[in-house]
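Protein: Glutamate racemase
Species: Candidatus Ryanbacteria bacterium RIFCSPHIGHO2_01_45_13
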Amino acid sequence: MHSDKRKGKIGIFDSGLGGLLIMRGIVKSLAEYDYVYLGDTARVPYGNRSKRTIYQFTEEAVRYLSGKGCELIIVACNAASAQALRKIQRSFLPRWHRSVRVLGVVVPTLEEVFDIKGSRIGVLATQGTVDSSVFTKELRKINPKAKIFEQSAPLLVPLIEHDGLRWSGPILRFYIDPLLKKRIDTLVLGCTHYPVLKHTIRNMVGKGVRVISQDEIIPKKLNEYLVRHPEIEKRLHRNRGRTFIVSDMTDHFRNRARKWFGNHVTLKMVKYY
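Structure follows.
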């Protein structure tokens, strides 16, 4: 394991398991790089927090990951991407970490929606993301004629975080049926936790609805970003390092991490804020 402060790493931050799903997808396609995962499991979920609090949590994470040598940071949380990312990029980084780049998950997802040319778009997301209206605002910029329907799903993240997937069917049906009644042709899973449920959701909505899952989109978009920005890519080290840090340790999180990344995975608990 390399020194924590050695530069050239990719940091991935989320409140919980969703970021692990994004990291799993990224590592599958970009395995050679060094990664640091930071899960704020003590304060999950973010989706029901105020904008001010979400910004505070995001800044704390970016500051910590920057100190760990991460030169490229993925905010793998839609609520944080929607409500904190722009301020991080425009105010925090220029003042404190000029060389660090911080990317979110909302814009790459919107690009995918544009590419497939959906006209009746459903968005399933946390309450905070829906309240921000970020998907509606940005999708209308891309396609002013598209019909956009957002549905908050506040129970899904706690269900996923606390090993409650066996009860997900009726709850998913409760959230998805209103979108299906709108005759959507595209469904955006606007929370990085939701890929855990993507197969169930695809079966539920049928083949006539294209389901966009961020664990499939973000790795592809990150690879495209690195191709477009060789000046950033060349700063990244290729030692296949993997570091997993959480703010609270739970058996469910540990078990998921080992299932997705192997039994050798070690989680380190750090109170970084």
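Remarks: DSSP finds 13 helices and ten strands in the chain.
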